[in-house]
Structures are given as C-alpha cells and as structure tokens.
Design goal:
Blueprint (H helix, E strand, L loop, with lengths): L1 E8 L8 H7 L2 H10 L1 H17 L13 E3 L5 E3 L5 E8 L2 E8 L4
Antiparallel strand pairs: 1-5, 2-3, 4-5
Length: 105
C-alpha cells in the first residue's frame, strides 16, 4: 500500500483558460467542471497529484492518465483504476487530497 497527498492553493486556479483545462481534465471531468466551477478543478488537480505520488513506480504520468469522478453519494473515485482510493476536501483557501494505492495482485 502506498499513500500520496497533495494540497492546492485555490486562488492559483481561479482564472485558468480552456487550454489548461484540456490538459488536466478528461472530457467527463470537463462536463462536471462546467457545472461545479473552479473548486472542482482544485479538487481534481490535488487528487491527481496525490494519485501520482501514491503509485509505486517511477513512470511519468500526466493528468489525463487518471479520471476522478463522483459516485451517486458524492464520494470521489478513480474511474480508471480500482486499486486507488481517494479523498478530497476543501477549506477556505486550500484543497487537499489523499490517495491510497492498494496493489490487489
């Protein structure tokens, strides 16, 4: 089991342009972003950084390698890797995410 954590200062992501959004959010995430706004973006950035830190190898990843969606109860999950558990929290100026990678093999 490996753990990764990341924190984002929310104000840094307030005015990001469409080009940036296309580099960090999948198409499904972009649809949610349009409805939920920049705090959603903050959570996805922190979440994906935490996931990359939790993974056990040294492969270079990019933000589009992972998709973080929410289940019917609002809990975030990595839709393309069932070995990853993730939690995202927002507090005033900051967003934090913790990811746990469990190798189930």
């Amino acid at each position: 089991m490996n753990i990764g954590c990341d924190i984002v200062e929310n104000e840094r992501l307030v005015d990001k342009n469409e080009e940036f959004i296309n580099l960090v959010l999948t198409k499904n995430e972009q649809l949610e972003f349009k409805n939920k706004g920049y705090l959603y973006l903050c959570g996805r950035i922190a979440g994906k950084e935490a996931i990359m830190k939790a993974l056990p190898n040294t492969k270079t990843y990019n933000f589009l390698d992972f998709e973080i969606l929410n289940d019917k109860d609002g809990k975030p999950y990595c839709s393309n890797n069932s070995n990853i558990n993730i939690s995202i929290s927002h507090e005033k100026k900051y967003t934090i995410a913790v990811a746990i990678f469990e190798n189930k093999d």
